[in-house]
Amino acid sequence: MPIEICTISGYSVTGGNSTAIKIDDEVVILDMGLHMENYIRYTENEDIRKLTYPELLKVKAVPDYKLIKDWRKNVIGIIPSHGHLDHIGAIPFSADLFPNAPVICTPYTAEVLRSIFQDERIKIPNQLIPLNLNSIYKLSEKIQVELVNVTHSIPHASLIVLHTPYGKIVYANDYKFDRQPTLGKKPNFERLKQIGEEGVLLLIVESLYAHEDRKMPSESVAKQMLKDVMLGVHADGKAMFVTTFSSHLARLKSIVELGKKLNREIIFIGRSLSKYVTAGQRIDLINFENDVKIFKHRDKVEKILNKIMREGKEKYLIVCTGHQGEPKAVLSRLSRKELPFKFNNGDVVIFSCSVIPVELNKDNRDKLEKQLRSHGVRIFRDIHVSGHAAREDHRDLIELIKPKHILPSHGGKEKAAAMVNLAQEMGFHQGKTVHVMSNGKRLTLK
Q1: Would you list the DSSP string of 209-235?
Q2: Which of 71, 119, 314, 423 sits a CA distance of 20 to 30 A from 51?
Q3: Could you tell me which of 28, 4, 32, 27 has the C-alpha nearest to residue 17?
Q4: What is 43-107 written as a DSSP string?
C-alpha cells in the first residue's frame, strides 16, 4: 500500500508540529508550526520581519523540511488544523518552500494568518483557501480534505480527514470533546461516527494529556471558575487584571460577560489580543466592539493607563497579555514599572491559564509572580481548564472512528507511551498497529 508518513516535527519533543503524508506520488503537509520556546528565545531581540527560514532552522524554531527534500516537488497542499502558532506559526517562513501548494484551513485560521502576514509585512506565494468546518475540498483526483468540527482553546479547530483510495487518515492534533462549549458548536460526533464506519486506516492523535485518567472538563467549567473569582473576591477600590491566551476567544467572551456584571469599563491591552480579537470580529465569531476598547500601540497604551490612574483603577477591568510571563508582554512591563501604572497592595491579578511546562515559561512566570507579589498584588493562578483531550476523551475518539493504526503525536516519547498504553488496552499492538515515532522518521503502511 503506497502510503508513507514522515513525522517531521513534534514527535520527539512538544512543539513545532508538522507531518507529511505521501499518497502514491502526492504529498500533503499537515500543520506547519513553530517550536515556541526556541522561537521566543531567538526572537526576543530580533525584528520578525527580517527573519528567514534558514536562520530559524538553525535554532530549531521551525520544522526541518530537508527531511522531505525527495518529496518537495510532490507537495500539493498544506493543511493546518487550527490557528495556534505551534501549528501555523512556521507558515510565513516555510510555505514558500512549496510555492504551488495551497494553504487550506478553517476561516478563523485563515484570518489569523492574514493578520500575521499584515502585521509582519510578510508575503507568501501560496494560495490561502478558507474551508468551512464540516466541508470537503477536492485536492486532487485521489485526495480529498475534510475539516471536521471539534472543540479546543481556539475557534474553528478541526480534525483533518484525508480521504484516500486506501482509507481515511484522521489527524487529531489538538482537540477535546466539549459538549457544553461557551463559543461555537459541539464536536461533530455524528460525522466522526460515519467516518469510522467508512473506514479509517490511520489516526494521528495528540498525547499531551493521555496520561491523565479523566475526561477533560468543559470550557463552561472555566467560566464558572472565573465567575467565582471575578465576582466573588472583595476588590472594591482595587485594580483587577485578567490575563489569558489571546487566541482563546471563548475565554475572553466569558471575561467580557463577567466584566459587564462588575460594572467596570473593559480594556484590552496588547498586540496579540488585538490580532486575534480583530480576526474573530472580521468573520462575526464575536462582537466585542460595544463592550471593549482595545489598545495595542505604545502611545495609546500609555495614554489609557494614565487615564486609569487618574480616574480610579477600581472603575476598570484590564485584560492584558503576559500570561506566560513573557518579558515583552504588557503584564511583565507593568510589574517592572515600565508603563505609567502603579500596583497597590490588594490589587488583583487573575491568571486564566496554566503555565506551559517548558523551562523558559516556568522561569518567566516565576519572575513575574515574584515581581507582582513585591507590589502586594493578590494572585489567582490556574483559573483554567485545558483545551486538550485527556485519556478518556481519546478512548471515545478511538471507539468512534475505529482506526486500523494509531500514531501518537504532539508530546514526545513519554506522553506517547501513555497513548500506547491506552491503545494496547483497546486491542492494538505496539509496532504492528500502534507506532511510536521520533522526528524525521518514516512509516509505511502496508
Answers
A1: BTTS-SPPPPHHHHHHHHHHHHTTS--
A2: 71
A3: 32
A4: HTTS-GGG--HHHHHHTT-S--GGGGTTTGGGEEEEE-SSS-HHHHTTHHHHGGGSTTSPEEE-H
Task: Report whether pLDDT(411) > 90.
Answer: no
Residues in contact with 102: Cβ distance below 8 Å, sequence separation at least 6, in sequence order: 77, 78, 126, 127, 128, 129
**272 and 398 both lie in a single domain:** no
For residue 46, the model assigns a pLDDT of 65
Whole-number percent of the chain with pLDDT over 90? 92
Closest by CA to 257, choosing from 283, 222, 284, 282, is 222
What does the DSSP assignment read for 342-385? ---TT-EEEE-S---SSHHHHHHHHHHHHHHHHTT-EEE-----
| Of the residues 323, 358, 380, the one at which a domain ends | 380
Copy the grid coordinates of residue 304.
489609557
Q: What pLDDT digit, counting tens, does each position of 294-333 carry?
A: 999 999 999 999 999 999 999 999 999 999 999 999 999 9
pTM over 0.70: yes
Query: 403 versus 44: which is more confidently predicted?
Result: 403
Are 30 and 88 part of one and the same domain? yes
| pLDDT reading at 428 higher than 90 | yes
Give the pairing type, strands 158-164 and 167-172: antiparallel
Average pLDDT over residues 199-208: 97
Its domain, for residue 251, covers 219-380
Same-domain status, 201 and 236 = no
Please report, as a single letter, which amino acid is at residue 195. Answer: I
Q: What is the pLDDT of residues 27-50, one digit of tens each?
A: 999 999 999 999 988 887 666 667
Q: What is the DSSP string of 276-338?
A: HHHHHHHTTS---TTTEEEE-SHHHHHHHHHHHHHH-GGGEEEEES-TT--TTSHHHHHHTT-
CA distances, 428 to each of 104, 192, 224, 378, 415 (Å): 32, 20, 39, 49, 17
